[in-house]
Amino acid sequence: MVTSRFSKSRKSNCINEEQQFKELEALEVDGQKVEVPQPLSWYPEELAWHTNLSRKILRKSPQLERFHQFLVSETESGNISRQEAVSMIPPLLLSVQPHHKILDMCAAPGSKTTQLIEMLHADMNVPFPEGFVIANDVDNKRCYLLVHQAKRLSSPCIMVVNHDASSIPRLQMDVDGRKEILFYDRILCDVPCSGDGTMRKNIDVWKKWTTLNSLQLHGLQLRIATRGAEQLAEGGRMVYSTCSLNPIEDEAVIASLLEKSEGALELADVSAELPGLKWMPGLTQWKVMTRDGQWFADWDEVPHSRHTQIRPTMFPPKDPEKLQAMHLERCLRILPHHQNTGGFFVAVLVKKSPMLWNKRQPKVQGRSAETRDPTQSSPAEPAEERPGDSPDLDGQSASGTEDPEAIQAAENSRDGRNRKDGVCGPPPSKRMKLFGFKEDPFVFIPEDDPLFPPIEKFYALDPSFPKKNLLTRTTEGKKRQLYMVSKELRNVLLNNSERMKVINTGIKVWCRNNSGEDFDCAFRLAQEGIYTLYPFINSRIINVSMEDVKILLTQENPFLRKLSSETYNQAKDLVKGSVVLKYEPDPAKPEALQCPIVLCGWRGKTSIRTFVPKNERLHYLRMMGLEVLGEKKKEGVARTDESTAGAQQPEDEASEEQRTGEVDSPAACDPAGPEPPR
C-alpha cells in the first residue's frame, strides 16, 4: 500500500486530485484492479491519501508510469511525503502550534520530523515562526538521511543534531541577557523497538524476532522516555510511540515512567482527537516471557539467575489503586486489521509539575512572544540531577545552595575560552566524544562584515531583514554559500556549541557566483530559500504571466523577446544579475493557475534563465496542466507536448546571437560549484 501525505503549507500548490487520479479509474494491472487513492478518514483536512498499489507494481507497470513519476518528483520537491499511515499519528497527537519549541528525540529517517516542520509553517505568510524543531538521532549516518528529508521543506526552523537520546544534553538559551535552561513545549519520543508491528511488510521480523528483543530494548526505551520527560516544559506534551505491540516495550515503559514521576506526569485522554481512527485501549495486565518460553506474572516469581534479563519495571504495578490511577487504558493500540495498516502503540503524556529531581522550570508557551509580558516569566534555575542520571549541562549538577551569579560567571568564562564570537563549531573533544564525520563550523556573519552591504543594496532589502541570522560554514577564505536560521535557532546555536554536535541547520539563501564580482553583487539568489527571502526583497522583481512561466521552465535560456511585452519592459532596464520572477494569480481569470509562484532567475544580456531544481520544475508544470513525461525530459529541462515546438531555438536565430556575442555565457550564470555533501 502506498500512503502519501500532502504538505498543508503547500496544499494550494498541490495537484488537483481529480486531475492526477482520474486516469487510474478502471485501470487493471496484472489482473488486479487499481484502487484510486482515497483520503484517510482520520487525517485532518484530507491531507493524507492511500492506495493498495505495491511498490513493485508501481515501479514496473507502464500504465502507472505517469503516476509513479508524479509521486517521485512531488516527494523530492517536498510537496508529498510517502509514509506508513500509522506513523503519521504521533505528530498529530502532539497538537503542534507555530510558537512551540519541539524536540524529536529519535528522528531518523525523518518522516515524522517533516510533519512537525509542516505544522510550524501552517501559515505560509510567516517566514520565521517563533518555534523550531531540534531533530536528533544517535546514528551519525542516518542523520544525513534526516537532513535530506528536512531539506525538502526548506525551513529555517530545523536543526539536526547527533546524540544518544537517553543522555541528550540539556541546552540553554539567552533570555534578556541571562541564560535559561531550554525546556521543550512538545517532545516526540518515537523510540527504537523490536518492530513486531511491521511484520506485514517486513519479512525480516519473521526471521529474527524473539522475546529477547523486547527484554533488551526495555531499559533503553525507559531511559529515553525519562530523559524526554526531564526536558519537557511544565504543561507540555510528550508522545511516546513504538511500532511494536509487545507490552514490555509499551505499557510497561509508560507505567514505570508514571510511577517514578509520582504525579508529575499523566496520560492524556486523546480518544476524541482523531475522529475515525480505530484503536483499542492500552493493557492493564500482562506477563513477561523469556526467550525459552517461560512466563512470569510477577517480579517475585523471577529466579535470581534471570535478574540480568528481566527487570521489575517490566511488570504492571501490584497496587490496584495505583494501577487504576495511571489510566493505562488511555494508551492507543492500533492493530493491523483495524484500518489495513501496520501495528502501532501511542501514549500521550502531559507534564503537570516538575519532576522530583528537577527544580523550577518555565511554563509552556501559550501565546506568542510579542503578546507575552516579559515581567511574567521567571528564569529557570539549573536543574538538580538524580543519582545515576546523565550529567546536566557540562557534567555538573547545580544544587540549590549554589550562587546563580557564580554559575553564570563560570559559564560565560568557559564560553569565552572555548569559542570565538559568532562561531559555533563542534564541541571540544574533552567534553564529548564525537563519532562520524567532522562537521564544518557554523559562523554567523558579523554586522560590520563588508560582504553584506552590496547584497543589501543590490536587492534593496527591507530594514526589517534579520541579517544577524545569516551564517556560513567556513571561517577562512571566500564565503561560498550563505544560510539563514530563525532568531530562536540562532540563540540555541550561540549558547550551546560546546554541548551538542550539530549536523545541519538553516536554509541556503545566497550562492556566490563566479562572475558576480563583475556586476554589482557577488551573490545570486538560491531557490531553496526564496520563499523565506522574498518578503524582504524590494528590487529586481519581475512580474511574469503564466505563459512566461511555461517558457522559463521549458526552455534553458529563452531570449527576452520570447516573453510577454509586460515582462520584457520590466527586464530590459535591469542590469545583469540575479532576479526574482513572480507570478501572481488573477482572481478575474478562474481558469488560470490560482496560486502564486516565486522563482529565482538570472538576467543576462538578452535572455533570462531560471535556477530551479528539476523536480520543482516538474511540479510547477503540473500545476499549469502540462504533460510531463520521462522520455521528454532532457538534462533537467521538462519538455511538454504544448511547448516542445517553442523550446528549440531556430538555428539561424541562435547562430545570429552567437555571431554577435549576445548569448549569455553559462559561466556568467552558474554558481561557483556544487556544495560538498554534508
Characterization of the model:
This protein has 21 helices and 32 strands. With 678 residues, it is α+β, with helices and mostly antiparallel strands. Among the domains are: 79 residues, no CATH class; 88 residues, no CATH class. A hairpin with an 8-residue loop joins strand 22 and strand 23. Helix 3 crosses helix 18 and helix 8 packs parallel to helix 9.
Briefly summarize what is shown.
Among the domains are: 1-79, no CATH class; 540-627, no CATH class. The chain contains 21 helices and 32 strands.
What layout of secondary structure does this protein have?
Elements: E1 2-6, H1 17-21, E2 28-29, E3 32-33, E4 38-39, E5 48-51, H2 55-60, H3 65-76, E6 80-82, H4 89-93, E7 101-104, H5 111-120, E8 132-136, H6 140-151, E9 158-161, E10 172-175, E11 178-181, E12 184-190, H7 203-208, H8 211-230, E13 232-242, H9 251-261, E14 265-267, E15 280-281, E16 288-289, E17 295-296, H10 320-326, E18 332-334, H11 336-339, E19 344-351, H12 404-418, E20 423-424, E21 442-444, H13 452-458, E22 470-472, E23 481-484, H14 487-495, E24 502-505, E25 507-512, E26 523-525, H15 530-533, E27 541-544, H16 546-554, H17 565-571, E28 577-583, E29 597-603, E30 608-610, H18 614-623, E31 633-634, E32 637-638, H19 644-647, H20 651-660, H21 666-669
Parallel strand pairs: 7-8, 7-12, 8-9, 12-13, 27-28
Antiparallel strand pairs: 1-5, 1-6, 2-3, 4-5, 9-24, 10-11, 13-19, 14-19, 15-18, 16-17, 18-19, 20-21, 21-22, 22-23, 23-25, 25-26, 28-29, 29-30, 31-32
Helix pairs in contact: 3-18, 8-9
